[in-house]
Write a structure and sequence with these properties.
- With 267 residues, this protein is an alpha+beta fold.
- The protein has 2 domains: 3-126, Roll (2,3-Dihydroxybiphenyl 1,2-Dioxygenase, domain 1), CATH 3.10.180; 135-264, 2,3-Dihydroxybiphenyl 1,2-Dioxygenase, domain 1 (Roll), CATH 3.10.180.
- Helices cover 22% and strands 30% of the residues.
- It has an 8-stranded mixed beta sheet. The protein has a 7-stranded mixed beta sheet with strand order 10-11-12-9-13-15-14, sandwiched between helices.
Amino acid sequence: MSARIRHLALYTENQQGMASFYKSVFGMKRITESFNQPNHGHISDGVIGLAVLRRRPGFHAALDHFGFEVDDVNSVLDKLKNKYPKVLVTKGLEQVAFAVFRSHDPAGTQFDISWKQHPKVQEGYRDDGWQQDRQINHIAIRSSDPEQVAEFYHEVFDLKEGENLFDEDALSVTDGTVDLIIRRTSNHSYMSMREGIDHFGYAVESIEQVKNDVAEFGSTHPEAAPKELAGGVFGHITQEDIDGCKIGEYAIADPDGLLVDLSTRPA
């Protein structure tokens, strides 16, 4: 396949706590060094490099974008120009470890484009990665027109129809390892009305063990304790909404309240 999902990024005001959570609970390891912050950098599950970025003015503390590693960048740029002329493309910031170009899909979800041979692709992103028990298996985005978004990723990045193709309200395309789940927007909740990146999920060896590890992390790191997913006035609505992502079997919230789906890794 000509494109692989290799990157995911979030913004936070608690970089240390968030990075510690994903390293402790999901076994992620640091693969890059920050250009201006000692002891910071991207972490990885062996497939996806997760950038835990310091929130800047004007940015939300939230999932922000994901990224593709491609074999033929000129082909991708030509497809964007010829088939989707209204889609914007810009160069990535010079100091970042992965992005060479930045663009977006018809729902406004932003993604990076890079290739291993480019000098900006640094450190662990040049490696082939590794296998471990807990790895990211899907990224969910929302669109008012999932069919259009699925067709976009098929045409531009040659992603194929995923096995997790459920119904007209939840389409799936895949690079063969990681699925993009495209959920239709709805008026069920404020969250479900928004287009763009929604949540992500891991395939794990044991959901019960992850739940235990999350509880242990919260007790030993109270300054970065994971949020209660179903708490508060709107908690039950949030629970219903994340349960609507059929690839996940159980959902948790991280220290910032970002939603993370868990599913059992096939034996």
